[in-house]
Amino acid sequence: MGEVRKIRTACRSCHGGCGVIAHVKDGKVIKVEGDPDSPYSRGTMCSKGLAITQLAYHPDRILHPMKKVDGRWVRITWDEALDTIATKFQAIIEEYGPEYIVVGQGTGRDYESHLYRFANLLGTPNVLTAGHMCYVSRVSTSLITCGNLPVADYNGGPKLIVMWACNPLWTNPDEYRAEWFARAFKQGAKLISIDPRKSYYAGRADLWLQIRPGTDAALAFAWHYVIIEEELYDKDFVKNHVHGWDAFKERVKDYPPDKVQDITWVNKELIRESARMYARTKPAAIHWGVPTEQTNNCTDFTRTAIGLMAVTGNLDVPGGNALFVNPPTRTVAEFARHKDLSKEARAKRLGGEEFKLGARVAFINPKKAWDSILYGEPYQLKAGLLCGTNPVVSRANAREAYEALKKLEFLVVIDFFLTPTAELADIFLPAGTWLEQNHVADNWKRHGYVFARQKCVEIGEAWQDHKIFLELGKRMGQEWWDTVEDALDYLLEPSGLTWEEFKKKGYLQGENVYYKYKERGFSTPTRKVELYSTILEKWGRDPLPKYVEIPESPVSKPELAKEYPYIFNPGLRTPNFFHSANRMIPWLREIRPDPIAEIHPETAKKHGIRDGQWIYIESPRGRIKQRAKLFDGIDPRIVTAEHGWWFPEIKDPEHGWDISNANILTDNAFETCDPNMGSTNLRACLCRISPCEDEE
User: Fold this and answer.
1) How confident is the model at residue 2 (pLDDT cuts 50, 70, 90)?
2) Cα 380 from chain centroid?
3) Which of 171, 206, 388, 613 has its CA 20 to 30 A from that of 128?
4) How far apart are CA 61 and CA 27, in angstroms?
5) How many CB atoms lie within 10 A of CB 585?
6) How do residues 490-525 score in pLDDT, each as one tens digit?
7) Residue 328 preceded by cis peptide, ω within 30
8) pLDDT tens, residue by residue, 593-604
9) CA 140, 129, 489, 13 torsion-angle sign
10) Are 384 and 101 in contact (CB under 8 A)?
């Protein structure tokens, strides 16, 4: 029997950072368990992390580079793969320019610093991420509003938690671990849940506001209305630390609770009661989720929500929404060398003038890429490199994404499996899982930590993403290091630690300081919380936030609603899948073998739909089928569905990507996006339902 070694590392099966102890025997990970010494996760792990061995050693995982020859995949060496990519990219740069290459990522595997460094040194401004509608959108809006991302300070002892469009027990999103929220709630914190569906904790909250999907900004304004009308705001903070208060108060007058009741479907008295509870309970923390960003009101909700934190005295205070200090490491921006991308290159960024706030944080709206490929507007992208992303399933108007990627002249995909997107590639590069990488994990987050993710094993010929960008970059003549570990030494340099020293230490935490604004103000042009944005004003945009009706709703499209009478609310999370990942993992697929659409029993009865029956869901853009789950915790006017579905067990190259894919139904038209960020309106469009004749 071989000896079992225990290696401390950090998970990245979802948003990452949880401490893990990996048990390694004979060069193979045989088990993982939560690390009780982790200050971040305290020994807890979710189902996705616990199933990592089934992913890492899955028989369908691709463990060697491949190229497509006459429509079939052929195994090649790393040298051939990288030389082929470098030669093709260099030819495109010489004939057209680097902007004709798009580099893309999904939610990410902590390689953002390396991917952006590669793109910036390549000279392309066209980086396609999920950030335009997920997390980075709230970060960029927070930067222009209060200078940093406000994070719910669960460890600071909140007396009230506002859980706004988020279910951390299932998602462990971004800065947060489920354990943090569960512990604070167990210790007696009050809870306001704002959610269209009755989740586990919505049913246990002190107040549950069952909001119409996409109307969060209107509700936030109504809270401001009550807080101002009843003078529940912190007058000293507003006087000394808020810019544009008088103008903002005038805008708030447009959103009295009786009007917002009609917009949001939340009773006006419940609006008042919840606003009072939030304003009067100190400290109180708002924890908001990605549904608030995946609408045309993304920027303005974030600005208005930060306004609530600020005017009630809950910003940068213990137990409120803290502005955490990063650990002493190089930032992603510094490592990525964003400043090296020339002004001329930035001017060629697709959609840069239209979505200025998105361009400010260096990414593009996906439809800008699709239009470029399909229609040559304003120029035609020739090649792409996609890392850890499956846009055929994860992007709105999925059929358009599919047609665009299929038309691209040269496509490289870095991933674990041949996903529907990877099947469209010319070159496939096998990525290492988090068990197969060394990295300073979570260095892009704003919770004040970084963690040592230590390589536990090597599997096949897979390389960690960081090594792929490093080696490809060197072949392109870029400035990189000899090894991944050398690059990590550079990243850690401000801490005075080398990678070898850091991995023994395990983690670093930034200094936890509150009330920083009292000495130096906020990191905005006015040094105040800008409810009236001087940056947006400079760009010729509305400097004040507002609510704009969802582009496709019973209110904005009453005639269309006669044909498609229900609000389609996709994106329903489960604890076992991470967007389009994990459908091939036995443990996780056993939990959820089929895609689920929740409909109210009254709605089901109206259409003759039985619980568990396959149903069609149809929008003006297409039709899919999912299995009905009757659920009285949603409004009868809403159909809630899961996203991210494809079927790895279907062995043809399309893998059933168009059978149950919720994004076939969603829209990506520019007029439906957030005008500043380019956020795609994913969370609310119109649909109709019917029983499915095909029960298989």
Assistant:
1) confident
2) 27
3) 171
4) 18
5) 22
6) 999 999 999 999 999 999 999 999 999 999 999 999
7) no
8) 999 999 999 999
9) positive
10) yes
- Write out pLDDT tens, residues 49-76: 999 999 999 999 999 999 999 999 999 9
Contact 285, 161 (CB under 8 A): yes
Q: How many CA atoms does the CB half-sphere of 566 hold within 13 Å?
A: 29
Per-residue confidence (pLDDT) for residue 695, from 0 to 100? 56
**What is the rounded CA–CA span in Å between residue 424 and residue 71?**
10
Q: Does the pLDDT of residue 172 top 90, yes or no? A: no
DSSP-assigned beta bridge partners for residue 410: 383
Whether CATH 3.40.50.740 fits 66-135+330-442+449-509: yes
How sure is the predictor about 694, in pLDDT bands with cuts at 50, 70 and 90? low
Residue with tokens 């568990």: 612
Q: Coil, helix or strand for 529?
A: strand
Pairing state of beta strands 207-209 and 101-105? unpaired
Q: What is the DSSP letter of 157?
A: -
Are 665 and 581 in contact by the 8 Å Cβ rule? The answer is no
Long-range CB pairs of 692-696 (<8 Å, 24+ gap) are 692/613, 692/614, 692/615, 692/616, 692/625, 694/614, 694/625, 695/613, 695/614
Instruction: Give the fold, CATH level 3, of 558-691.
Output: Barwin-like endoglucanases (2.40.40)
Residue 174's pLDDT is 85
The CA-CA-CA angle for residues 442, 125, 473, to 5°, reads 65
Reduce the secondary structure of 128-150 to three states and give it as a string.
ECCCCCCCHHHHHHHHHHCCCCC
- Read off the pLDDT band of 1 (50, 70, 90): low
Q: Is the pLDDT of residue 427 over 70?
A: yes
- The answer to whether 118 and 103 have CB atoms below 8 angstroms apart is yes
Instruction: State residue 696's pLDDT score.
Output: 54
Helix, strand, coil proportions of the chain in percent (round to 5)? Answer: 35, 20, 45
Q: Whole-model pTM?
A: 0.97
| CA–CA gap between residue 620 and residue 636 (Å, rounded) | 21
- The domains of the chain are located at 66-135+330-442+449-509, 146-325+519-538, 558-691
Report whether 466 contacts 516 (CB < 8 A): no
Q: Cα–Cα distance between 110 and 127 in angstroms, integer? A: 16
Nearest CA-CA partner of 439 in 491, 387, 361, 376: 491
Instruction: Look up tokens 């971040």; give the residue.
Output: 40
CB 404 within 8 A of CB 122: no
| Integer Cα distance of 424 and 611 in angstroms | 37
CA–CA gap between residue 276 and residue 278 (Å, rounded):
5
> Under CATH, which number does the domain 146-325+519-538 receive?
3.40.228.10
**Three-state secondary structure of 663-692:** HHCCCCCHHHCCCCCCCCCCCCEEEEEEEC
pLDDT at 346: 97
Q: Which amino acid is at 172?
A: N
**Section 406-419 average pLDDT:** 98
Q: Give the whole-angstrom CA distance, residue 30 versus residue 559.
A: 58
pLDDT tens-digit profile of 542-562? 999 999 999 999 999 999 999
Q: What is the percent of the chain where pLDDT is above 90? A: 96
Are 309 and 149 spatial neighbours (Cβ–Cβ below 8 Å)?
A: no
